[in-house]
From TrEMBL:
SUPFAM superfamilies reported for this sequence: FAS1 domain (SSF82153)
Protein name: Uncaracterized surface protein containing fasciclin (FAS1) repeats
Residue stretches making up the FAS1 domain: 43-187
Domain of life where this protein originates: Bacteria
InterPro entries: Adhesion/Biosynth-related (IPR050904), FAS1_dom_sf (IPR036378), FAS1_domain (IPR000782)
Cellular component GO terms, alphabetical: extracellular space
C-alpha cells in the first residue's frame, strides 16, 4: 500500500513539474517585444502589459483616471496608439495634471479613446491601407473622429484631426485583446 502511495505521489509530482515546465516553455515561445524595459506578452491583455512598461506610466495613470481599465482589459480587439511618457511631457506644462482631475474626466476619456481604433490592425495592414489609399489612409477611432496614416521612407506616421503628427516608434506589440503601436506624440481630437 505504501509503495502504491509513493508511486502515485511521484507520478503526481512528475505531472505537476511537467505542466509547470510546459507553461514556462510556452511563455518562452511567445514572441515578446520589449517596451519600456519590460517584455510584452501576447498572452496578456493591454493593461496587464502596459503596467509593466516604464515608458508608459503617464498613460497608465491617465487610463485609470478616465476609468478605462476594464474596457482595455475586455475582449476587444483594440488597436492602441500608446504615447510614451516623453510624448506626454511635450504637452504644455500642467496639461496632464489638469486632465487627470475628476472634473476633466470627459475630456481625458475623449483624448484617450482617440488613440484607439476598434479591431486589430498590424503595421503591415496599416501600410497596405496607405498604399491602397494613394499615400494616406483614414481610420475612425473609438472617440469617433479619424486618424490619418502615411509613410515616410521606412517609417509609419499618424496625424490627428488638428494636423499634429506622431511617428510609430515600436510597432506590432501584440496583446491577447489587440495590438499596441507606441507613438512619440499625444494625438488630440
Amino acid at each position: 500500500m505504501r509503495k502504491n502511495l509513493k508511486i502515485v505521489a511521484f507520478t503526481m509530482m512528475s505531472l505537476t513539474l511537467a505542466c509547470s515546465a510546459d507553461a514556462v516553455a510556452q511563455k518562452m515561445k511567445e514572441k515578446t517585444v520589449m517596451v519600456g524595459g519590460a517584455a510584452m506578452y501576447p498572452s496578456k491583455n493591454i493593461i496587464e502589459n502596459a503596467v509593466n512598461s516604464k515608458d508608459h506610466t503617464t498613460l497608465v495613470a491617465a487610463v485609470k483616471a478616465a476609468g478605462l481599465v476594464e474596457t482595455l482589459q475586455s475582449k476587444g480587439p483594440f488597436t492602441v496608439f500608446a504615447p510614451t511618457d516623453q510624448a506626454f511631457a511635450k504637452l504644455p506644462k500642467g496639461t496632464v495634471e489638469s486632465l487627470v482631475k475628476p472634473e476633466n474626466k470627459k475630456m481625458l476619456t475623449k483624448i484617450l479613446t482617440y488613440h484607439v481604433i476598434p479591431g486589430k490592425y498590424s503595421s503591415k495592414q496599416l501600410w497596405e491601407a496607405v498604399r491602397a489609399g494613394n499615400g494616406t489612409a483614414k481610420m475612425k477611432t473609438v472617440e469617433g473622429e479619424d486618424l490619418v496614416f502615411w509613410i515616410e521612407g521606412k517609417d509609419l506616421f499618424v496625424k490627428d484631426i488638428k494636423g499634429n503628427s506622431s511617428k510609430i516608434t515600436i510597432a506590432d506589440v501584440n496583446q491577447s485583446n489587440g495590438v499596441i503601436h507606441v507613438v512619440d506624440n499625444v494625438l488630440m481630437p
